[in-house]
Specification:
The protein is of the alpha+beta class and 306 residues long. Helix content is 21%, strand content 46%. The radius of gyration is 22 Å and the shape is globular.
């Protein structure tokens, strides 16, 4: 009887250990539409689980943003690091009021360097996408797990264009003025033109307010402004091919040099950071997949010079 009991105990422990090693979970956030009637993206916390026993990938979050996918149905798993505002900064300002506003120049320095996980997968005859935000401390483990499962379907962009501080007064068009009308209905999409370079720039929405409010974020290309956004909007520009100093400008300026080729599209994010009076900006070049996902959750900036 004792042998049977010991055997059953060992069998139970072995099954428990096997179950524990068959699943790997991560606390993440999903970028999901606010509702079925709104395109605005909001972040929702949840748990992403790899279940090797059933070969299924699942996200458990809210009622309308959970999913479960067979490993074999994953067609692309794209990872890239972005820098953005701390998620709890707006909550801190709401709780602390003027104290937090006075501390904003210090708080804005606490940039978050998380990893975006863009996922494409088959759902019957249709293709679905999801965008997950992975904390920095677990991103390497999650990427390694994805590589072991999805192999060549894992994509990590090769380009590393990230903005550096620029003196705003050095920009030739620093004193130019523009007005913005947010287009709430139509959603123009970028086109490829054989004689032009296509520039797509999205300013992701961070705050919980209407995209029609907030300060402007201009994109300078050498001597002129080619795009103007507010949080939650996007712009599209078609420019002559050549070498450019691309700079995102608010009260600060941030950018880099790169060459734009005719017939190609380039995708950028104007990330925003809390400032004492107006929000600051940072420019980065990102994948088409990430920027277009953000674009689909944004509104078109119909801007013009004053």
């Amino acid at each position: 009887m004792l042998r049977i009991t010991n055997w059953l105990l060992l069998f139970f422990l072995a099954c428990t250990f096997s179950f524990a090693t068959d699943t790997t979970s991560f606390h993440v956030k999903i970028q999901h539409r606010e509702s079925s009637k709104s395109r605005i993206l909001i972040g929702k916390s949840g748990v992403l689980t790899f279940d090797d026993a059933t070969r299924r990938l699942a996200f458990a979050g809210g009622k309308h943003d959970s999913f479960e996918i067979n490993y074999d149905d994953v067609t692309k798993a794209l990872f890239e690091v972005t820098t953005h505002m701390r998620d709890d900064l707006n909550n801190a300002i709401g709780l602390l009021g003027l104290t937090a506003v006075a501390a904003a120049p210090l708080l804005q320095l606490e940039h978050v360097h998380d990893c975006w996980f863009y996922l494409e997968y088959k759902n019957g005859e249709h293709s679905e996408t999801a965008l997950l935000e992975i904390p920095k401390d677990s991103s390497e483990t999650l990427i390694a797990k994805a590589k072991s499962l999805f192999g060549s379907r894992v994509v990590i962009p090769a380009f590393q264009e990230r903005g550096e501080p620029v003196d705003p007064q050095s920009l030739p068009a620093i004193h130019s003025k523009q007005s913005i009308r947010v287009d709430w209905k139509s959603q123009p999409l970028p086109e490829l033109k054989p004689d032009k370079a296509t520039v797509v720039v999205v300013c992701p929405r961070i705050r919980n307010y209407d995209p029609a409010y907030g300060n402007q974020f201009k994109l300078h290309a050498n001597e002129r402004v080619i795009a103007v956004n507010q949080e939650g909007t996007y712009s599209i520009a078609y420019v002559e091919p050549g070498k450019y100093h691309l700079v995102s400008q608010s009260v600060n300026a941030n950018g880099f040099h790169m060459e734009l080729e005719a017939g190609k599209a380039y995708y950028f994010l104007q990330s925003t950071f809390e400032g004492a009076v107006k929000n600051h900006t940072m420019l980065s070049r990102n994948s088409e997949e990430l920027v277009m996902y953000e674009l689909n959750g944004s509104f078109f900036s119909d801007w013009k010079p004053k």
